[in-house]
Amino acid sequence: MGRKLLIVEVAGLSHDFEVAGLNSQTIESVFPAVTCTVQASFRTASSPSKHGMIANGLFYRKLGRPMFWEQSARLVEGDRIWTNFRLRGKRVGMVFWQQSLGETVDLILSPAPVHKHHGGMIQDCYSKPSGLYRKLCRKIGRPFKLQHYWGPLASWKVGEWIVEAVSEILSNPDLAPDLLLSYLPSLDYDLQRKDPKTDKSVIKTLNRVKEQLLRLIKNAESNGYDVLIFGDYHVAPVRCAVTPNVVLREAGLLTVRHIKNMAYPDFYASRAFAMADHEIAHVYIPDNNDIPAVKNLLKDLPGIAEVLDVEGQAAVSLNHKNSGELVLVAAPGKWLSYPWWTEKAEAPDFASHVDIHNKPGYDPCELFFGWPPGSVSQNTGRIRGSHGGVGPKRHVTWASTFSVPGKPTDLIELAAMVRHWLDESPQAI
Questions:
Q1: What gap in Å lies between CA 106 and CA 180, rounded to an integer?
Q2: Which pairs count as long-range contacts for 122-127, CB under 8 Å and 24+ apart, including other chains?
Q3: Which of 55, 251, 398, 401 could be stapled to 277 by a disulfide with Cβ–Cβ 3.0 to 4.6 Å?
């Protein structure tokens, strides 16, 4: 009988958190240390300079449009670590991984709500095989709740449904793949809402996550699976947001359209735009002649630690056609926010709503309710934790129930070792 493996990516599982019951080790993450980039790097055992997921969003130059959290697997370039594994007849599954739709695997489960024409939403999950989600809902006794996954009500409760779904899959011989990659975001929300160093309620959430992991490990082992757990990024305390687009607009480089007194960005006419994502931002500059002026403008912006040009991006393996002409890196205690306005009256309609796909930047303020009721906050001062940076004090944790050859120093090396482990797996019967 061949080896079987459950991989669990735990959002925010950093070097100072232990994985209950396993020998935990620290490791370097991928830069930028954000969800889509880390997951693409792990599945390909390669850097963003090769796979192209340079952030949680991409700016489509030909469309003149930034788009976040798109789910097509074709956005991730490169060979997968499980390619040879599947060629030998093994089955692979992905549960709640980004960019999984259309992936070359045998089982997929991912949130995929339907947004109604006149507002509102039909909650649903995409699944492969097509009847998998409905079958899991019947087994678990309730549907997946998107409000626990993102928004003001997001919490550790999202992990309860995911843990039950993964456990059902592993215990069903007709469904269980030989390799299953799953994602557990239970810890992520409180780490962004509350100071991860000083708020004691974060410890309560961490204990919930440990309990969820113990249940996964126990179920996996009882069904003949080894387990590998890894964290994707270290969430650091922050107190202040930096708004590069405000500076670009004041300099006449970012152009807006006023519609009913609201300021909407004009990406067709703008000479520079910063696509902000946690602690980094890609700055897109259509005319290369403008790069020096934009770099000089932003390098002295308070809260910016580095401005990476082409050479700087190459040094951190972020040089890809999808990357901005410049990349901003926030200073310690700071994070980068997308707004280009300072007066609330100018805020576009989407600013006060959960709108993860159309906002031209990641917006953690969606984790808080705003005013009036039904809206989300626009107060960047409420954010207490952010991520994206790497370094000696930003390591993450990984642990496994089996021996991994060598001693990986970063997540890409860990992924390469998993690929080797899979390739050494006995031939499928």
A1: 10
A2: 126/71, 126/101
A3: 55
Closest CA to 179 of 81, 73, 266: 81
pLDDT (mean) for 66-94: 97
Helix 132-140 and helix 157-171: axis angle, to 10°? 110
Residues 381-419 pLDDT 10s: 999 999 999 998 999 999 999 887 788 999 999 999 999
pTM over 0.90: yes
202 close to 196: Cβ distance less than 8 angstroms:
yes
In the block, which residue shows the tokens 């067709």? Answer: 268
Contact between residue 212 and residue 158 where contact means Cβ atoms under 8 Å apart = no
Distance CA(384)–CA(222), nearest Å, equals 39
**What does the alpha-carbon distance between residue 143 and residue 120 come to, in Å, rounded to a whole number?**
17
> φ, ψ for residue 162 (rounded to 5)?
-65, -45
Question: 132 vs 53, 89, 128, 136, CA distance in Å?
Answer: 28, 21, 6, 6
- CB 342, CB 361: distance < 8 Å: no
Tell me if 206 sits within 8 A of 18, measured CB to CB.
Answer: no
Token reading at 206: 């961490």
Nearest one of 69, 133, 121, 143 to 99, comparing CA atoms: 69
Spell out the residues 6+ positions from residue 211 whose beta carbon is closer than 8 angstroms to its own.
Answer: none
Q: What is the mean pLDDT of residues 161-185?
A: 97
Taking the C-alpha atoms of residue 234 and residue 52, their distance in angstroms, rounded to an integer, is 22
Task: State the Cα–Cα distance between residues 245 and 359, nearest whole angstrom.
Answer: 14
For 72, counting Cβ atoms within 10 Å of its Cβ (0-12 exposed, 13-18 middle, 19+ buried), the class is exposed
Closest to 111 measured CA to CA, from 354, 348, 276: 354
Amino acid at residue number 127: S
3-class DSSP assignment, residue 254: coil
Q: End-to-end alpha-carbon separation of the chain, Å?
A: 7
pLDDT digits (tens, 9 = 90+) for 176-223: 999 999 999 999 999 999 987 788 888 899 999 999 999 999 999 999
Query: What is the reported pLDDT for 1?
Result: 44
Q: Which residues contact 307 (CB under 8 A, 6 or more apart)?
A: 295, 298, 299, 326, 327, 328, 329
